[in-house]
Amino acid sequence: MNNILVIGACGQLGSELTVRLRQIYGADHVIATDKKESLDQLSEGPFEIMDVLDTNRVKEILKKYQITEVYHLVALLSATAEASPRFAWELNMNSLVNILDLAKEGYFKRLYWPSSIAVFGPNTPKLNTPQETIMDPNTIYGISKLAGERWCDYYHKKHDVDVRSLRYPGLIGYKSLPGGGTTDYAVDIYHKAKAKQNFTCFLGEDTRLPMMYMDDAVRATIELMDAPADKITVRSSYNLAAMSFTPKEIYQEIVKHYPDFKTSYSPDFRQAIADSWAQSIDDSVAQNDWGWKPAFDLSKMTQDILTNL
Ligand code: AKB
């Protein structure tokens, strides 16, 4: 039986992934951890306060629950990381390398670590960005994700660590709020529409970015972790895609449901970050290796969010 540790369980992805893992493996087999207090939706199973940079505490939890699989989700995202580059580097990088070392030392068997479209940069082909391509990220978050991918690949090749990773597009969910990302406008806009308030977007109306509904992101993560090891040909991180849209296009979709909804545009420093990223992603390697297929497009996601929010 798998005993799973989720590090960063109170975050945007962690909170939804933990709930899904508990449905699959049983609440007692999925240990949620975070630096901050737990959330209501995590109250079904074990929760421990844990700072991922405190290696002794991480070891203690790994031993206490006889953990076999770790989802290490902690990171400072793109916009926040620009405000504290040194801390972002320390958190994003040291935490990963510490966890990779624990995997190498045999504390657990399999590791999941998220990468991002932020690994791409101004010289990356913007349309249908291939799995293997120019990567010249110019944000500290992107630099840390690209370096992290190389560490993962290195630990797999050199130490046979079973580490798996996805380059997430912007993740959109309604159950939890994101913090500090460049794609987060696409979450906020639904909350404003539902609250019958006007929305001011921090990106220009034609800024196209790859995005994914949280249901698809959670399913992709679990499908990757469930795939037989011999199907995993990429140990840095897989390109992953579902949809791409602009702020204007998401507005046009929401306005079909809320005809009085109004949006204006006031681009800030996040515009330059968005402009440096890819606009659409070729995820054919993930499709071929472990059968990835998204279920949600912009219209289906909008319908689902506005019904349930
Ligand atoms: C961000 O905007 O920083 C994240 C990401 C694309 O990784 N959502």
Model description:
Belongs to the NAD(P)-dependent epimerase/dehydratase family. This is NAD-dependent epimerase/dehydratase family protein. It comes from Reichenbachiella agarivorans. There is one protein chain. The protein has 309 residues and is α/β, with parallel strands linked by helices. The protein has two domains: 4-170 and 212-239, Rossmann fold, CATH 3.40.50; 173-211 and 243-280 and 296-308, UDP-galactose 4-epimerase, domain 1, CATH 3.90.25. The chain is 41% helix and 15% strand. It contains eleven helices and 14 strands. Strands 3-2-1-4-5-7 form a six-stranded parallel β-sheet, sandwiched between helices. Strands 6-8-12 form a three-stranded parallel β-sheet. The longest helix is centred in the first third of the chain and has 20 residues, at 85-104. The chain is globular and about 55 Å long. Residues 77-78, 116-118, 141, 168, 170-171, 181-183 line the site of 2-amino-3-ketobutyric acid (AKB). 2-amino-3-ketobutyric acid binds next to strand 9.
Topology of helices and strands:
Elements: E1 4-7, H1 12-25, E2 30-34, E3 47-49, H2 55-64, E4 69-72, H3 78-83, H4 85-104, E5 110-112, E6 115-116, H5 140-159, E7 162-164, E8 166-168, E9 170-172, H6 185-194, E10 199-201, E11 209-213, H7 214-226, E12 238-239, E13 243-245, H8 247-255, E14 263-265, H9 270-276, H10 284-290, H11 298-308
Parallel strand pairs: 1-2, 1-4, 2-3, 4-5, 5-7, 6-8, 8-12, 9-11, 10-14
Antiparallel strand pairs: 11-13
Bound molecules: 2-amino-3-ketobutyric acid.
Residues 77-78, 116-118, 141, 168, 170-171, 181-183 line the site of 2-amino-3-ketobutyric acid.
